[in-house]
Automatic annotation (TrEMBL):
Residue spans crossing the bilayer: 20-39, 51-74, 80-101, 146-166, 178-199
Family in the record: Belongs to the binding-protein-dependent transport system permease family.
Gene3D superfamilies noted in UniProt: MetI-like
Keywords of the record: Cell membrane, Membrane, Transmembrane, Transmembrane helix, Transport
Membrane-topology annotation of the record: Multi-pass membrane protein
Taxonomy, superkingdom: Bacteria
Annotated protein name in UniProt: ABC transporter permease subunit
Pfam family, one: BPD_transp_1
CDD domains: TM_PBP2
Amino acid sequence: MTLIEIIGTPAFLKALGETAYAFSVGVLAAVVIGVPTGIMMGKSRLLDELLLPWVNIFLSAPLTALVPVLMVLFGFGMKSIIITTALFAIWIIILNARAGVMQINRSLVEMARCFGASPLDAFAKVYFWAALPEILSGVRIGVIRAVKGVIIGQLLISIVGFGALFELYSANFLMTHFWAVLIVLFAMAFSISELLAYLERRVSYYAAKR
C-alpha cells in the first residue's frame, strides 16, 4: 500500500482531524497564556523572580511524568490531551517572550510614556512588537515540542488520533503504515516550523529598533 493510499483512508483522516484539533487548541492556549506571561515577566522584576524558577523547572522536567496527574485532574478525554500539548509548548514561549522584552531599548518605552501611552498601549504597541522576533522564535520551538506533547497525550491518556494509529500499526507490525503516519507528522511539524521561521525573518527588522 502506497503512502497516498494510506493517508486517504477514513481511519487516517479521522486520526488527522483529532490530532490537528488537540494540537491547534493546545498551541493556541500556550501562545495566548505564554506570550503575555513572558512579557509581564520581562517588565516586572518581582514577577520575574517569582515565576522564573518555576518556568525553568517545568521546562527541564520530564513532563511525561505529569501525564498521570493530568489524567486524575481532568479525566481521560480530549481536555487532558490539549493540556498536555499546551504544557509541552508554553514554557519556551514564556522564556522567549521574556527575553525579547528584556532586550528592548528602554528609550522606546520612555518615549511612549512621554506621549501619554497607557500601560495597555505600551504593552500592545511597544513591548509586543519590539519583542516579536523572539516571540515567534519561541512559538516555533514550542510548536515542535507540542507535536511531541500531543502524541504522548494520545498514547498515554486516550488512545485516539495518531497515537491510536501508532499503537495499532506497531502492534500488528504494519511498518509501512506506521512510517506513513510518522512522515505525515514530521511534514506537518516541519511545515509549521518553516512558516513561523519565515514570519520571524520578515519581522526581524524590529530587533534593530529596540
